[in-house]
Amino acid sequence: MLVDNVRVIIENGELSEEEVQYYINKIKRHSKRHVLRQITFFLADDYMDIRYAFNLIPFERIRRIALNHNSKKRKVNVS
Length: 79
Fold this sequence. Notes:
Blueprint: E1 2-3, E2 6-11, H1 17-30, E3 36-43, E4 47-54, E5 60-66
Parallel strand pairs: 2-3
Antiparallel strand pairs: 1-2, 3-4, 4-5
């Protein structure tokens, strides 16, 4: 699927177009000098991995977002 001229891949679950647009906007806001080319969401029970790539940059960024806000279940606690 294409959202805001970005190729979107959703693996192992479903996300609404509003959720996808939220993450695309957030990435674009923090990376204004680069053109976002593709974003991949991988959904698991407790987390979501987001992989994204820009045009003309030969690497991919990976972010993991905890879906469960209970810090006791996290492997790493952030102070």
